[in-house]
Every structure is written in structure tokens, then in C-alpha cells.
Amino acid sequence: MGYVFDFKEACQYDAWFEQAGNRHCLDLEIKLIMDLLDLRSGQRLLDIGCGTGMSLVPLLDKGLSLTGIDPSVHMLDKAHERLGTRVDLHRCVAEDLPFEDNAFDTALFFTTLEFTDRPAKAIEEACRVAKDRVVIGVLNRYALLNMYRRCKGFFSPNIYNNARFFSIWELKKMLLSILGDVPVHWRTTAQLPFFRGKIISAVENNIFVQKSFCGTFIGMRIKPVPKFRVRPLPLKVKQQKMHNPATGLVTTSRARD
Q1: What is the pTM of this model?
Q2: For domain 7-222, which CATH number applies: 3.40.50.300, 3.50.50.60, 3.40.50.150, 3.30.70.1350?
Q3: Per-residue model confidence as pLDDT tens digits over 151-167
């Protein structure tokens, strides 16, 4: 099931993003995720771990059928206040989704895997319910900013104390074990600390910067192509019983006089 946010943490979650620097990082992450989603009007999208609904706001006017799930009733209350009835919200866990196979075109994890006990199982479930793509957004274990965030948590407890960070290699290894060698496309955001503006935005959007293994935020798109292992089965041929020979005919089994 993983970590479930309580009422106090749900309130602090939104307040944290109201700070200018944190909002800047969120905007970079949302832009990267939107590019990876590549959505078209009429598609069905599931946001796994939608939280307070902040990640769904940019999708409201895209003509999509939106569904969000989260294990925290307090997070869902905040999401309902923000989104109203424009998103179908459910309380459940990422590892056990109450939806049929291929129920959605796209499944999205936006900083959700960090708080699950079984991230591989959560990805497996996402691939089951999404027929076209799964998009994952996670915090990079090897980014300097995330290392600072984790170290800071030792002295001042914060949301990152309960988070598990990932690397690009770890995600790829996990996907390989679940799906085999499926198409995977990834990019990152650098999120340069203490710097903002048009020049920094241009740097952030540079394709070479976004292919850095040390970017703060990893965005990964997966095409869940099914793989099947085939092994040959032995064929059992039933032999026909030979008919009894007619009386008086010579057979090879009879001894000659």
C-alpha cells in the first residue's frame, strides 16, 4: 500500500507548492510530463496517485476522460475541491486497481512510485489497465537537489523522509523484468536551484540537458507491448489399432513347415 498522507500533510502539500521556487520546479515537471503524454481529445487517462489533483489541472481542458485514484481520503477531498466533478475520483491503491484490462488509453504516475511499497507491482497494474502508454514521473536518486532534500530531512522532517527515490537504470531494470524489452523513452529536468528566467528555461528545454542521467526529475514513457514466451508442446499421436487378418492368410509371424 505504501505511505498514506494524513490531513495535515495534505494541507502542507499544496502550501509547499505555493512557494515560488517549488512552483517553478513543478511547472518544469508538468511541461515534461505533458510532452511525454502526447494526448488527443477523447482519450481516457488514469492518474495513479493523483494526490490533491494538482497534476490533473493542466489536463482539464484537453477534451479527455479523466480518472484519478489515491489511497488518502484527505488528498481526495482536496482534489474534489480543486477539480469538482470534472474528474472521476476513486480511493484505492496503485498495486490493486479496480479497473478492467485496457480500460484506459494512458496511465500516469506523477511522483507516486516514491510512496508505494511495491513499485514494480504498481507499474504492472498500470500496464494492465492502459492499452497505449504508461508515463512515469519520479524524483532522481542521483540528482544533487534531491540529495540535498534528503539530507535536509534528517534535521527538519519533510515529505521526502517518506519517499523512495529512483534512478533511470533502476526503472529500466524494473520494466525489463515486467514487460521485457519494450519501447522506453525518457527525459529529465535539471531544475537548476536558485535560478529562474527565460535563459534558464531555454537551458532546461535543451534536448542535451534533458538527456542527463543526473536530472532532478525523470519522465519516462513506456509502450506496454505484450510479450509472450512460447515453448513447444510434445504432440501425442494415437496409433490406430491394426485389424485382424482374414483367416487362412499367411502372416510373417507363422513358422513355416
Answers
A1: 0.81
A2: 3.40.50.150
A3: 877 777 777 788 899 99
